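Key result, reporting period 2: structure in, sequence out.
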């Protein structure tokens, strides 16, 4: 099967993002121009732009495209922001965050996903991303404070040590809380 990924991206923006009030042209352009299929194994590429979550490992995967767009929209990233992305997986969301911020620190601690993340970022020659193998629970204090801490992996509880890594001025946490 030969899937036209460009057309699938366009349809995803038209049918998933726009009807749900994601109308910031910068975010829409990110979703149209970031090739999600390149961040997935061959078996998963066909559902890149569906409205389903995509599981990469037993308990880890990408939220659906609308949820990702809503989180990015809510983050209100600026080109001077320093961002901590907890749970970078294979880099799809990290790449979009890097295009909206000055500096991005990405934490990933799953060996297979970490290798894919490093390879994907290297292949794209992005210079404002630093990848760290660290515990999600601990964040990454060495580079703090952060303007935004972005967590697109559902977690049960956010530690106070991660909260302490926010900029005291206007730092915010963007996340999905697991109930």
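The corresponding designed sequence is given below.
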């Amino acid at each position: 099967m030969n899937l036209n990924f460009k057309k699938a991206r366009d349809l995803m923006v038209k049918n998933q993002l726009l009807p749900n009030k994601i109308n910031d042209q910068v975010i829409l352009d990110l979703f149209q121009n970031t090739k999600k299929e390149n961040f997935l194994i061959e078996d998963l590429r066909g559902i890149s732009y569906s409205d389903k979550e995509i599981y990469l490992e037993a308990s880890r995967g990408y939220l659906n495209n609308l949820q990702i767009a809503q989180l990015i929209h809510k983050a209100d990233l600026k080109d001077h922001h320093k961002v901590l992305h907890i749970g970078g997986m294979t880099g799809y969301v990290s790449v979009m965050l890097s295009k909206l911020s000055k500096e991005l620190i990405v934490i990933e601690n799953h060996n297979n996903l970490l290798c894919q993340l490093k390879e994907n970022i290297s292949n794209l020659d992005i210079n404002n991303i630093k990848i760290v193998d660290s515990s999600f629970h601990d964040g990454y204090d060495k580079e703090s404070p952060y303007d935004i801490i972005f967590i697109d992996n559902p977690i049960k509880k956010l530690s106070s040590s991660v909260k302490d890594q926010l900029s005291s001025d206007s730092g915010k946490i963007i996340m999905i809380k697991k109930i």
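The chain has a mean pLDDT of 93. Residues 111-124 form the longest helix (14 residues). This case is discussed further under Risks and Mitigation.
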